[in-house]
Amino acid sequence: VMGVPESRGVLRRMSDMLEMLMKRMDILARLENSTDFHKGDEARFPLDRFQPAAGLMERIQAIAQNVSDIAIKVDQILRNSLLNGKAMEGRRDQCEVPRDPKYPDCAGKVEWMRARWTSDPCYAFFGVDGTECSFLIYLSEVEWFCPPLPWRNRTAALPSPQPFQSDLAHLLELIGTGKESLSFMKKRIRHLAQQWLRAARRLEQKLKGRQRDQKHILIHIGFLTEESGDVFSPRVLKGGPLGEMVQWADILAALFLLGHSLRVTVSLKELQSHLGVPPGRGNCPLTSPLPFDLIYTDYHGLQQMKQHMGLSFKKYRCRVRVIDTFGTEPAYNHEEYATLRGYRTNWGYWNLQPTQFMTMFPHTPDNSFMGFVSEELNKTERQYIKSNKVSSMAVVYGKEASIWKVGGKEKFLAILNKYMEIHGTVYYETQRPPEVPAFVKNHGLLPQHEFQQLLRKGKLFIGFGFPYEGPAPLEAIANGCVFLQARFNPPPSSLNHEFFRGKPTSREVSSQHPYAEDFIGKPHVWTVDYNNSEEFEAAIKTILRTQVDPYLPYEYTCEGMLERIHAYIQHQDFCTTLSPPLPPKAKSPAMQSPPSPLALSPNATHLMWSPSASRDPHAWPPVDSLQVWVSETQHACTETCRRRGLVCEPTFFRFLNKKEVFLQLSITCDSTEYEMNHLYPAVAENVHECYLQTEPLLLSC
């Protein structure tokens, strides 16, 4: 029930409208009885359009009488409720802004509401009506800037959990229809279904007896929404990039098979509905607690969520995982630092934990490696490939004619053509693309299974330098091809190359596929200077003589991806994890540091977790896997760890960002600086200066 004046006003308006309707019906009835009305007009005005049904006038009169009766009864109820509820209304009219040190922003927010509550319709949607009490109810129950009012009933029902689903057909329903990109993803899931199911069974055996939490997960693929432009869907059948859709299809399959409850959206309207976005301009929080434990999205989706979730975005952003093909470095992620130091781009500056960004390849341990899967071969298929490889057949990487346009290819293509028959899969509609040389056998754009068959026959899969870091080279290597790619000099990056400009990373790309170069290498991957004809020809000759078996790294198998995503969901918690302790800038004599949990290794080359130090059994990765080494000058932690067969782990920096650790490593610190800098903690050994980090989000490998 609304307030007294509003309720009476609504009923009065209803009564007036019914009265007006009756008057108009009466006029029509009189017209109907007029003899002049019918003369010569029957053809143009059929009588049945104007004849009111016999009982219609009576019904309207009855409704009008009912409204009149209701108005009288409501008036009585409102008067009684006014008398009975005086104490409550007194409280509502006499709300005072509470002075609670736990809610320091309350008074300021109330002041803002007094001046601006009409600036967005969402405030009225939540019941704000300009009274002090409505401000406080809103600021304590919808937002969280004021303490709850003691006289309010605050019980709220939480959303009920979704039932467990395990049938992949149900996943295909969840993905929906209406876009070529969605059709492509569903085809991929169907094609790999048996492989996924076998891998899930194997992982289930591995994890027997271990705790597995089931989560409610929203997957919002922002780049496929109409609001973001969706440039991908129209190009699926025309040779456009498919890497992102390959990855999203595999993420959906993995999350579903791990037993989580999923909701999938590719439209802004669906996103708003699932999140509970109130009407208005995005200033208010969500209408109810977020019903999802995790949200997987991309940069487009992240922007849409921030725009429509209001204050709730800040509250719930710890639940977001951002699928980010090329990665986001800490220097670009920290808004203030990026702005001050020139790292601000169109992307980045979200102030998330860097490991909330999930990449296609393991570019940097500062982000989490999500990956995708490649098809695995059984024994029969491997044997078939061995028997049917055509040793003189090369397949070119790339489906768009534009990759053939760039000059400089004539020389190395002439050398390749001398030794091998060259096959292409370049898209065309009616006639052969003129960019593709006549000696190349072009198959046009092939369906995935036909492309696999081509790779199973081919000896060599050759890259022309673009596209960067896609899934196809791994598929080729898994089908027994050797991958030949160009070494870049100078290496492109966001600092010198148009393609990478604006991406939130300074990473230098040493070749078309750095993962294949660094993590797989020879004999499966050859990286050479295409401008050096002798080096290129020597590589071709060696590849022709070399026998290679199909190879697929474990991390790109279905089981590897399932295991990795399970570990992330089970162990990564960005909502409750405390920030690592920062070094104090000055210590009073009373401030005693706790003893370091690190100790010198038996051979005194590095630090390790001390056997006497306590361990958190839930810590992930386990702290006793920690080793602390000092890099050579100008070497990043990533490089130093890899040389020692280790991986840089950013969560361990909280144990290292202390002067005591420098001393344990026998580093002389004549001076120690404390600064917000993405290169710290660090040491300049030549001048005995030590540097410690003051901003946890900038701790970087």
Question: Can you describe what's shown?
Answer:
- The protein folds into four domains: 93-149, no CATH class; 168-369, no CATH class; 379-551, Rossmann fold; 598-698, no CATH class.
- It contains 27 helices and 18 strands.
- The longest helix has 30 residues, at 4-33.
- The model is unreliable at 1-5, 35-52, 76-92, 155-165 and 586-591 (pLDDT under 50).
How much of the sequence lies in strands comes to 5-15%
Q: Could you give the distance between the termini?
A: 60 Å
Using only CA atoms, what is the Rg?
34 Å
What count of helical segments does DSSP give? 27
The profile of the biggest β sheet is:
6 strands, parallel
Overall geometry: globular
Q: Kindly state the mean pLDDT as a whole number? A: 85
Q: State the low-pLDDT regions, or none.
A: 1-5, 35-52, 76-92, 155-165, 586-591
Summarize this structure as a short list of keywords or feature phrases.
701 residues; disordered N terminus; alpha/beta; 4 domains; MGAT5_Glycosyltransferase; six-stranded parallel β-sheet; alpha-1,6-mannosyl-glycoprotein 6-beta-N-acetylglucosaminyltransferase; transmembrane; EC 2.4.1.155
Q: How does the SSE layout of this entry go?
A:
Layout: H1 4-33, H2 35-38, H3 56-84, H4 86-93, H5 106-116, H6 121-125, H7 132-142, H8 168-175, H9 180-191, H10 193-206, E1 216-220, H11 243-257, E2 261-265, H12 268-275, E3 294-297, H13 299-309, H14 312-316, E4 320-323, H15 330-333, H16 335-341, E5 357-359, E6 368-369, H17 379-388, E7 393-397, H18 402-405, H19 410-419, E8 421-424, E9 441-442, H20 448-457, E10 460-463, H21 472-478, E11 482-486, H22 514-520, E12 525-528, H23 533-545, H24 558-571, E13 598-600, E14 607-609, E15 627-628, H25 637-643, H26 653-656, H27 659-664, E16 671-675, E17 682-684, E18 689-693
Parallel strand pairs: 1-2, 1-3, 3-4, 4-5, 5-6, 7-8, 7-10, 8-9, 10-11, 11-12, 16-18
Antiparallel strand pairs: 13-14, 14-15, 17-18
Helix pairs in contact: 1-3, 5-7, 9-11, 10-24, 12-13, 19-23
Protein name: alpha-1,6-mannosyl-glycoprotein 6-beta-N-acetylglucosaminyltransferase
EC number: 2.4.1.155
Membrane topology: Single-pass type II membrane protein
